Recover the amino acids of this structure.
């Protein structure tokens, strides 16, 4: 095999109650990446379409992740990465995670799969770190493992794949303003009230339980964030109105996707998710602001191989 | 039925990673309570053995809980509660929770079970509030529902019964010093570092997942508390040495039981739990301090009815 083409999906991190630890993988939204063997060792960035990305291998998320993998592996050949970037950087649905995860996944395939998907997270984090200023796996884990994931520890990369109730459907609205994760992170306070922290871990524990028991009502009650969202919400136009519209239309829960500005909702069934989309859209239609709306079941597979040759 | 005799078990709250939300029920340790119908409406405290407890119905945890139930129920008769109190108050293994839960459970039975076990938590909390200064359900829930429980919200009393891996055995050492929950709570800071909070909810989410998947290794890795334990540990003689001895002897995890001074450990299998007990004891044997050691499987049933007449 000399070349692989793959679909690197977008993802939603935090999911209201799991700041920095919880995430799930989206389905129809993602980048198309082609990774090809070259004769020159190292990683180069080839064609880039859809978005403007750095061509310098030391600055591009995908190549940095790929280089981190190659540093620990002996390979006689190198790799070129072509990216059709459909996920806008700074959208809050894991743009950099898709690039980093896609790169290491593809290179690993071309090397004959020396690493497991879980092991690949570590290399992808090197790429993610350039984009967000800190190495986090909360978007990478769902992209590489699929479905819902929990990062118990970023330090030791203790990552758990969680089950997911099959009727869950996500609605995501992406207002076309750019929020850098780095900035969204800097407005957070270094300490939080103990009583809010207790609520948050009570909610996360309940959310995890609900995933195992298909308890949609409990899932709904658990999707609260009184710790992070109050700070970040103000960076997103009409956040609270959009969230309330989603809930009123029947969503189980709604919140900021990752560090925003995208807003996600989870619903039971596609029909409700569609209604939720219309409700979210109704808020944004009246603003002089471009946006995109996505509907997606939970992608339990993660990255998909489109072609190999 | 005019009289019921029951076993109201001790319990372990917090369980390292779930401060104020997580708890499990112990088996062989508990109070014996006898609740009898009387002709005078209200609740009175009859015979008390084992410990000295207030006889004033407005001050005794059991009667306050019972009165909270009766306030919402019409009953022509009253109730007398006799208590053989085997759990020492201030031991950290849910002494007040056992009394409060036992009282409402017994009265509910004598009234023909108008309330579910989950509904009884609300009444029992009134009793618990006198003892600990705040109404918490983290010990009450495991006593009334059995097994492991998660209190998602104290306000709305959203309580979830969790599964438990069948090989889990608890070891508890109770140093005979008294720590009032009220005091143990007052040394905590009102805010906590965000990064520690993230670790804590990552651990709790993983712990809940481990209970569903019988993953003893993950359970072990999740049993950490960097938020509360550092403050409370200093109130407990030789806490860290005892915890380390337990871990070295093979325990999956060990920490402060509730607000202390009891120290608990969880092990896989009774044999390991026994070794852990010997290791914990070896630290306390050299101190001029009385202690008690308990071994217990997880009590999945909660309160047990011993006799009715």
């Amino acid at each position: 095999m000399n070349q692989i083409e793959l679909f690197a999906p977008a993802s939603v991190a935090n999911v209201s109650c799991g700041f920095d630890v919880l995430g799930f993988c989206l389905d129809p939204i993602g980048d198309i990446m082609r990774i090809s063997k070259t004769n020159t060792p190292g990683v180069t960035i080839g064609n880039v379409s859809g978005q403007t990305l750095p061509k310098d291998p030391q600055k591009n998320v995908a190549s940095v992740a790929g280089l981190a993998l190659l540093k620990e592996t002996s390979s006689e050949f190198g790799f070129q990465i072509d990216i059709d970037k459909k996920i806008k950087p700074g959208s809050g649905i894991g743009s950099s995670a898709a690039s980093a995860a896609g790169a290491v996944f593809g290179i690993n395939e071309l090397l004959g799969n020396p690493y497991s998907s879980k092991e690949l997270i570590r290399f992808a984090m090197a790429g993610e770190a350039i984009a967000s200023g800190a190495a986090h796996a909360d978007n990478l884990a769902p992209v590489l493992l699929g479905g819902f994931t929990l990062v118990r520890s970023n330090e030791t990369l203790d990552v758990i794949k969680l089950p997911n109730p099959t009727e869950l459907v996500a609605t995501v609205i992406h207002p076309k303003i750019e929020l850098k994760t780095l900035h969204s992170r800097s407005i957070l306070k270094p300490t939080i009230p103990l009583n809010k922290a207790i609520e948050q871990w009570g909610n996360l524990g309940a959310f995890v339980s609900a995933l195992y028991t298909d308890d949609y009502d409990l899932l709904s009650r658990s999707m609260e964030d009184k710790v992070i969202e109050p700070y970040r919400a103000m960076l997103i136009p009409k956040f609270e109105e959009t969230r309330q519209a989603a809930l009123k239309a029947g969503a189980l829960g709604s919140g900021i996707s990752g560090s925003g500005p995208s807003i996600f909702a989870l619903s039971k069934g596609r029909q409700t998710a569609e209604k939720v989309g219309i409700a979210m859209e109704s808020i944004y239609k009246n603003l002089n602001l471009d946006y995109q709306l996505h509907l997606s079941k939970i992608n339990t597979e993660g990255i998909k191989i489109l072609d190999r040759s």
About this structure: The longest helix of chain B spans residues 194-213.
